Amino acid sequence: MPTLENDSIVVTGASRGLGRSMAERFAAEGARVALTARDEERLEAVAADLPTESLVAPANVRDAEAVERVIDRTIDAFGRVDTLVNNAGVSLLGKHDSRKGLVDVTEEEWDTVLEVNLKGVFLFTRAALPHMYEQGQGNVINISSGLGRQAMAGAGSYVASKWGLEGLTRTTALESEEYGVNANALAPGGRVDTDIWAHLPAEERERILDPDVMDDAAVLLAAQDPGGVTGESRTANEWETRLERTNPN
Hints:
Blueprint: E1 8-12, H1 17-28, E2 32-36, H2 40-48, E3 54-56, H3 64-78, E4 83-86, H4 92-96, H5 107-135, E5 138-143, H6 156-176, E6 181-187, H7 202-205, H8 215-222, E7 233-235, H9 236-246
């Protein structure tokens, strides 16, 4: 497993769940991590336990000016952005503990899911790419889902956001490859024990994936050099197989 010594990595949705786990793993591999989410207190708690230099930069991913400030603060603190992990996401299932058909979804609910899960990715990617282009290298890792490949009744807004994310990832890869930047999508490969599934009975949560399920794959993706694998979408296990085969050392 490669290390990320002194890399600068921005993780959105870093206050809990998958984002927190990846941030902790990046730091364990030597990276400096910029942590962003809306809850500053939770971010401070995460940062307090990291073994490397970190930056707490609270922001709402739907706010373009706030997003720009996160990237600017990261550049000021660490001098560069090597990897952007677009992890922040919401689901109506996490809000209502049940599926909700399209005829019952309000416009506000639809906008919230699409703006957090897709517009937020666009805003952070737009803010980070110029710096990566100038460096001549970088990695964008977009956290996707099995629902970015298939549909599910009662999850229309989430499905739409993740299908959009898959397309945006491929577009980012096509536009960025000439600048040495790789862009890929990473999915956990199943339900994960995060807030989205908090309504499940305890015995059922014990049978789903732990929040660290993507950590190894995320490290491998963040460690890629210019000209690496780009424009692909895989589950954590698939990425581990793909990248360990490509870079056996």
